[in-house]
Queue: 4 jobs
Job 1
Amino acid sequence: MTALVFFKLLAIFIAVGIGWFVGRMRWLGEATEAGSAGGNDPARVLSNAAFYIFVPALLFRTTARLDLAQLPWLTLAGFFIPVLILLLLVYGVQRWRGAFEAEPARPSVQAITTTFGNTLQIGVPLAAGVFGEAGLAIHITVISLHALTLLTVLTLLVELDLARARPDAHGLLATLRSTVRNTVIHPVVLPVLAGMGWHVTGLPLPLVLDEVLQMLGTAVVPLCLTLIGMSLAYYGWPKTWRRVMGLVACKLLVLPLLVLVIGHWGLGLNGTPLAVIVMAAALPTGSNALIFAQRYRTQEAETTAAIVASTLLFVATAPIWLALLSQL
């Protein structure tokens, strides 16, 4: 664990602590019942602001500027294939265990908690401090597709589940129609599609538009970190930690192990590319998981606890993975 990564972790916890203090003092107001007039607590209001304004700006700008021809596809496959395998496995297990009947969005929320890593606030300084410029370049390519891939797949899954659970659903065709409509007209998927459309034109983003998108996109990180602290203040800790620690174990141990096995022995990756994607998989749960959970009003307390616990435990698990990689 480098000093740079340690201070980044410390800064994250300070930002989360500020959010918790603001929420604890109720400076932004009290929580209200979901069914009452104006029924939204301040944490959910901030989450909606991130989901409908700041995250779409970041996704559109990233997609519009993405050069697909220059991406290291084999290295990316070594990361995203195991990530999607675990995502679908967790989702499928939750569906099989009946989580869908209790809360239709729960399987997808559990899946994002175990697969969506903090690739920006922690991942960037880790890659730069440990692997240098070459490693950072690989990590940036992972970031460029990380949210686009995972959020799009999970949005499709959760919208399909919600369409199936609606009492007015009529047959397969109606369910698919509703799913496609709600997936495309969505604050995550729509800016991705719009960004891809802009990229196809080959036109550069106008300077003013690019500046606005960059300004809005930079608000995602501080907003999400303070949102985690506020969510702790408003929702509290979960009543049982067994499920939370299971999600944390999947994120910090199972996912990087899958990436290591598939990347090294399946795709033949070695050296810096392999080390970078394994450590990207070993990162703690990212704050976008909480935004996703709050979007669908499911498992907010558990997701918040998983983010905090995985970030704390990352201090212990990261050196283990770095030591293991040094032996390959």
Job 2
Amino acid sequence: MFRNSGIISLPRPLERRVDTLAQSFMHQRLGSQMDFSTPEGEPALLPPNSVTWRIFKNPVALFIGGVTAVLLELAEPRVRDAIWQHSTFRSLALRRLQRTGLAALVTVYGPRSKAKAMI
């Protein structure tokens, strides 16, 4: 699914495990498998050699960036209030985080038409 080409790479067995978990997650959410390394039928919004692809393929960078983004969102009172009052984050935090992760993956790696629909 993902080929780790970043500076920090995972040991091969761990990389395969992460790929398997991501495939399982995508299958549960999308109802079918989606190969993010080669979008079916049409190219992704960004090419495979883009900075975005390289960052998203690096689990360490993605984790640090994701946590940072959430903290920055929650630091702004108006954004925090909007999330708290107008989303399912309070009652379904894990599901909301999964949907956000899926949206990010589809936007970067998915076929252009699915990415645009997700956006």
Job 3
Amino acid sequence: MTERDANSRLEDDGASYMMSVSDIMSGLLFVFVITLMAFVLNFQQAQREAQAEQDSLREEQESLRALVSAYSGIEDLRERMLRELERALAAQGIQVTVEAEVGVLRLDERAIEFESGRAELSGQAGKNAAVIAEVLVDVIPCYTELDRDAAAARECSAETLGALEAVFIEGHTDNQPMMRQGVDQNWELSANRAIRAYREFAEVSPSLTELVNRDKQRIFSVAGYGYSRPLPGRDYDVPTADPQNRRIDLRFIMAPPTNDPEVIEALRGRGAE
């Protein structure tokens, strides 16, 4: 092989090598471009998903704020009703205790006093029960479901109508045992006290028994707790005839704001979690 042929061959090999490197670089550049494009597309998709999640969270927060606002309004209505009852009873000389945060109007021994071991309402207790019934029938109807004429006759506010779901007349006893055939009868006694109070209210103001909620269900019912729910600071370790624990509580349950579409959606979302 001549020197010229050798040089020519070296030039051909060099050209081939440069072409191979160029091909490799082109291939790497192509892979880089494809990878970059995939990264950009994935990043954009992640951004869209993050934005969608933020929008969803924002909507949920708005719904929950609406829910809190709705329930706050209900709590305000309940306290308004309880305070109205408290003032009306005080004007009649009957002192009661209001626990607005739990919706309770407490009729302790200042309002309705029970003799130990008995459920009868006699003497001043019976007279006070009659006054309480008259106050209840004067205030409560505007918080129940009334027809248009009845609501207009009472000049009820539209915001209060249908707000009340139920009223529990709750009977309580002190912690003195009342044994009969080996069974403590305090549960029965507390229930009988609640029933006696309900019947007294119904006898004085029969229309109370006809009051209904949004679902056309009557609002009044009774419950007996025995001595299982003593007043704060009056939970004794030994049998004690405490008249303050022999009481009637009226517990007012307000209707949830289920007619609000935002609230319904919020509740559904919370339930799906």
Job 4
Amino acid sequence: MGKRSAALEGHDLVREAARILCEERLTDYRLAKQKATKRLGLSLHTAMPSNADIQAAVLEYQQLFGGHAYAKHLERLRRTALQAMEMLAPFTPRMVGAAATGAAHPGHRLQLHCFTDAPEDLDIFCMERGIDFDTGERRYRFADGRTRDIPMLSFQAGDVGVDVAIFSELGRRQVPLSPTDGQPVKRLDRGDVQALLAANHDTDDEPSPPSRRVA
């Protein structure tokens, strides 16, 4: 196969994987690539695109085809983040994940990072407020090459699922790596989230260009 054919094949694979993620509401990029490879009839030995390329394609797909539903869902995630971050202020919450990047669909839950050296304090905090939650762990990879299982607390905020990873106070400076691009995850504070919402609101309020009259 020539270089041009291989490039076109890779481009098709990226777009198909992004479409699958959005339409089937998957969050597993590896599974989306496998499905895309099969649906396009490509060899199992086809070079897989990077997760970063897939994420960029998801964002492009949603901006092109997601329409009002995508915009409202993203806004709902971010507004829920603001409310949850206000409630969890003693634990210095940060928003991460699809709500931060914009490459989101209804299959995504809101992802927050909080910080305390006593994870049980967050459990008690939620119990005192009558919040039903589940606990677990999520594995994160760090720049030193190590992986660590971080305590996780999950609850529902209306129709939005919220996952809160509970890092130690030292974890403020030890930022885990994104599974998408291998770079430190982007942690957004409340001011950052408010700025995203304001920017989106300003865009929505922009006047439509005047229609052209056809003689």
